[in-house]
Amino acid sequence: MSAVQDAGLHARLRAATGPAHAALERDLDWQARVATLLGYRALLARLHGFHAAWEPAIGGALGDPAFLDPRRRLGALVADLAALGLSPGGIAALPAARPIRLPDPAAATGALYVLEGSTLGGRLIARHIAALHGADAPCAYYRAHGSGSGAMWAAFRGRLDALPEAGAPAAEAAAVATFEALRAWLCAGEPVAPRSRRPADPVEAEAP
Ligand code: HEM
User: Fold this and answer.
1) Is 141's C-beta closer than 6 angstroms to any atom of ligand 1?
2) Which pLDDT value is given to residue 7?
3) Which ligand 1 atom lies nearest to the CA of residue 125?
4) What average pLDDT does range 145-168 have in this prediction?
5) Sign of CA dihedral 57, 62, 63, 65
6) If you measure from the C-alpha of residue 9 to the centroid of ligand 1, how many angstroms do you get, rounded to a whole number?
7) Is the Cβ atom of 126 under 6 angstroms away from ligand 1?
8) pLDDT of 86 strictly over 90
9) Mean pLDDT on 175-193
10) Position in ligand 1 atom list of the atom nearest CA 128
11) How many CB atoms lie under 10 A from the CB of residue 174?
12) What is the set of domains in the chain, with CATH numbers?
């Protein structure tokens, strides 16, 4: 058994998904995408499509709403998109990703590792957005757990390390597949900015 296999599941997942994290960070081009409020809104719209697909899939397979519900961030995305001027109809019409198959709680935990881990880098992105667009720029999604971040991440890591060894391969496979699906969804060549420009839109008005 290798040193990584000896380590807890958290260390295994971090090692297994390290290259996928690096690839996502490289390809996401997040600084360019959030440079304008319009671009930022378009990025949040893509994230909405991912969370809209993954959160119910994780919820169904995990079967633990008390643990998952405080970690859901679809509501934060809806709030940010609305504050950035997207209408309820526009939010409801956003495209959603197709989730991977999550056959059991271990796989769901591996997929959740990716969403929950993204709150760590999200804190840097939130600070960047506030510096660029002002402290009152809508940022509930990236602020995520706010001052509770440390405790939420510690609890999540504890959950990972408590997972029975038999579930580790499924968790690892789901984490890697979730990272790859997220990269494909966020970095695909599809247009990331709305095609039409409406002068009345507050975001349009503020965008340079
Ligand atoms: C949506 C895309 C992203 C996803 C899904 C993601 C996912 C993750 C995951 C799962 C972890 C936990 C690693 C561990 O087990 O320790 C993590 C940590 C981290 N990520 Fe990302 N990440 C994303 C984008 C980014 C970006 C763009 C940045 C750079 C701004 C970034 C910076 C970080 C940092 C600094 C940590 C470590 C934080 C710490 O240890 O305190 N991430 N991310």
Assistant:
1) no
2) 74
3) 30
4) 96
5) negative
6) 17
7) no
8) yes
9) 83
10) 30
11) 28
12) 10-206 (1.20.910.10)
